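During the reporting period, we have paired protein sequences with backbone structure tokens. One record among many follows, to show the layout:
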Amino acid sequence: MSTIVTQPDSTRRYGARRARSTRNTRNTRAASLTPLFTPHRLTRSFPAPLVMPGAGVLHVWRFRASWLPVAIHESEHWLSDAERNRARLHPNAAQRHRYVASRIMLRWIGANLCGLAPRDVSIVDEYGEQRGARLKVGDEHLNVDIAFAGIWVLIAIGQATLGLGVAMPRPGGETQQAASQHPQRRASANVWDTLRNSVRRTQDEARQRHAARFASMWAAMQRTDMAASGASLRIDRSDPLDAPDALDKHGPALWLDLDDAGRWHVIDLPMPGEIHGAISLAQRIEQIHAVGWFGP
């Protein structure tokens, strides 16, 4: 004689509620790491909602190097003598143009935040090979980092130590190869080839996301007191794939705990096409004002 044991309806309902609760808890934890992303259109009028970023607030600007807030003949005199000399050191015209565009834009942003003329905005550059700068506002400083991604220029401004990272698509990647194939050849491709290509694209995307996050961490940590004192950062810059496994976590944001360098908030930045962007900060960020992304 066999006995069939059935689960009471109440137990099944409780189990379902518990499973939903577990999923909701995981979702809540992931959401708590992701700051509020507020997009603003890029126009030649400074966005009215933007004021001096306080604790937990970050400003990120994205624009083409060919875009300027005012005509070039009006803005060329904004640059300091040091900036003009630095521009001349760039090896080609394209890099000089990107550098000049980024500094003009930074001075325009600083002027609107500080209430000064662009020429009078105080920008303190990092020393040596350290990249980044600081906007001096009275007795305080705002941290600034600038990164270039093809035709795009990114500028990040906030109170905390920060660093931008960008990973560009590899030339001749799977996506570009697939696009270059004849339509009839693509249509007759074996289904297994399609699946393998899909896996490769997923792996490539994960590597690019990892590389952007790692680049942002490296840029940020170069601006810490440890880097200034010459202490080891315990990250191998030569191979992004050897970086901490925590950078592989799914989701648009994560915490990275480093014994010697504290805790970092690493956030992915939406970028066009196959470009990947990220920013790392030594402070929890609750809101990002993103200028140059589609907004109301």
